[in-house]
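Researcher: I'm preparing a figure for a lab meeting and need a structural model of a single chain. I don't have an experimental structure, so a prediction will have to do for now. The sequence is pasted below. Please return the structure as tokens so I can convert it later.
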Amino acid sequence: MTYHPKSDFMRVMIERGFLADCTDYQGLDEALIAGVVPAYIGFDATAKSLHVGSLIQIMMLRWLQKTGHKPITLMGGGTTKVGDPSFRADERPLLTPDQIDGNISGIKQVFAKYLDYGDGATDALMINNAEWLDDLNYLEFLRDIGRHFSVNRMLSFESVKSRLDREQSLSFLEFNYMILQAYDFLELNRRYGCLVQFGGSDQWGNIVNGIDLTRRVLDHEIYGLTSPLLTTSDGKKMGKSQDGAVWLNAEMRSPYEFWQFWRNTTDADVGRFLKLYTELPIEDCERLGALEGSEINEAKIVLANAVTALLHGAEAAETAEATAREVFEKGGTGDDLPTLRLTTADIGDGISVVQLITRSGLAKSGKEAKRLIAENGARMNDAAVTDTGLLIRPEDLFEPLKLSAGKKRHAMVVLENG
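Model: Understood. Here is the structure written out token by token.
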């Protein structure tokens, strides 16, 4: 990256590692200096929450607002009915309008933590593309918009090509998706003066489509800016953990488990993640990321606290750290750990330790739980579990039972009355 930006926003994007590519560095930089720039990211409502994989985009919108510009969060109430085929091996399941609305309201809760919404010049807007997509007249749309798209070009986009190369079916419904996404950019520009679309680098083709369409239909100059597709230093896709997606809504992943995800960051990723996911000064991020040995663990706690405080509040971050210290350092129980609550009816005369490990979420199956025990990775109240046939009886649960898988993953088993 040799471009030296004049605007605060572009400087932050480059310094902190958010920038993969831009359609016109200088043009966008000058627009950012000239006045308030509205920019958007589209989020399809395929689940009740976004996960950590979307956090890099959310942070881009947050920095946009912090540097004096206007973020637009575009909810794909319309496009979710079609499904984005990008880099997927199969077609997305189609959702009902009620399911989509429910998912949008869950996602809104996350955005409210990161952005200020309102009517001011730099206040964020939340818009649903169903506003213009639901009432489209198909023939008019084909005539006015469809004629600007070349099928030859659409077939050359990596997201489509990879699917066709693997000889996997790509429905006409999904093929339309990139036209609808381009149309979103056009409508946001027409209705709200939106000048920029952000997205992951896999969205480059879709973003360029929107820029070309807007130039042809409205003769307006707009821009695209992409972030790198993030993988951890060991090659894993960002946003996944051993037990599935790292959701941002507290009811889908507790603040403690969220904190723990960041605390378990690989040493090599700490500095990079501090720059991307916190607002700590660059110098601090670099200093903390350069620590080695046991000192890097303190940097991971700084990372976990800062990311958790942004999403769940400072109090939740402090509680998570205190719980973690209690569990790891003192061998205590920790009230915030994932908890499996059982009744005497659930247990009967006894329940196997394999079942407990599976039901508490520390293993995905009985087979995986047995392997964990065989490999000396399972502990109960900090003592190794060696017998896969071990039965836990009701009297063993008069006090809460702590289960561990390895050194970093723990759960509580609690016996309730009933």
